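Q: What would this complex look like in 3D?
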Amino acid sequence: MTEFNEKDLEYVARRYRSGKYDTRAAIRRFHAQAGSTTHRRWWMTAAAAAASIVLAFAAGYGIHTWIRAAEEPAPAGQPVVLNPDVATTHVFVYNDAPLDQVLKELSAYYHCTLKAPATDKHLTGTFPDDDVAFIVSLIEQALDIEIEME
Amino acid sequence: MMDQKDIDSLFRLYYRPLCLYAARYLRDADDVEDIVQGAFVTFWEKSRAGQAPDSPKAYLYRIVHNRCIDALRKSGQDAIVNLEHLQEDVPDEEVVDRSFIWARLWTAIDRLPARRREILLLNKRDGLSYAEIASRLGISESTVHNQLTKAMRTLRTGADTIFFKVFLW
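A: Here is my prediction, written as structure tokens for the whole assembly.
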């Protein structure tokens, strides 16, 4: 991703207002406005909540095994899921995860294609899910690589 | 068929960049959000009608672009009028790319500690000198300098905002 310059910073600073252009608030507003067609059924929400509670317990007991298992190279064509409940938690947590798997997961979640040169670098960190460009730029700087986003 | 998860992903990818794009044309942040929100609603309705555009990104930017220009034509002096842009029928690719950088900067500024953000804005938005900021906030010039240096480092690396560790194997 291209580095910002002084003009970019001035542009954003002039327009900045705390709490504006909030993606999560916009999503909520959208679903309220677009009506019931986009709403989850109540039982889907309940099921998601139950699933995340189960996962939280499972993680408490066997987080290491789980991470180890998740780090095994995924068979080609299979989606990579390191954070199965991110839709509920809104946070990606990576613990020493191989970069290619991180990019696969982020690509699937954001419906885009993230590509980086082959590397065996690993990533540890916690990211909120509301801004993919920000996550990508952090990974780029931390691992000193270029990530392509399509 | 597009479902809730897909539209949420599109929001996460494009909402803030689209806002920063529209903010180039419109001064009022509420107008900007209404237009961007409206573009998503139009996109959603079109998709529900089985006419999903091939490129959601191009489609959303185009709608936002056109509606900004409509709004400019209607309101005139309330907005930031730029005749040069008014003549364009399609979004400027370079500005579209730039809007992603602006969105990232916005996010980073948003996550600065409040005091540090205020100092940054006084300097970059209002053009105040270190001395002017120091006297306005009742702090020393060296504090202003330190805070600005830290703020800029955060914007460039994102390091202060999120706990981050990397293993190089």
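A: To summarize the key features: Residues 99 and 119 of chain A are 7 Å apart (CA to CA). The beta strands of chain A are 91-98, 114-115, 122-128, 148-149.
Q: Very helpful, thank you.
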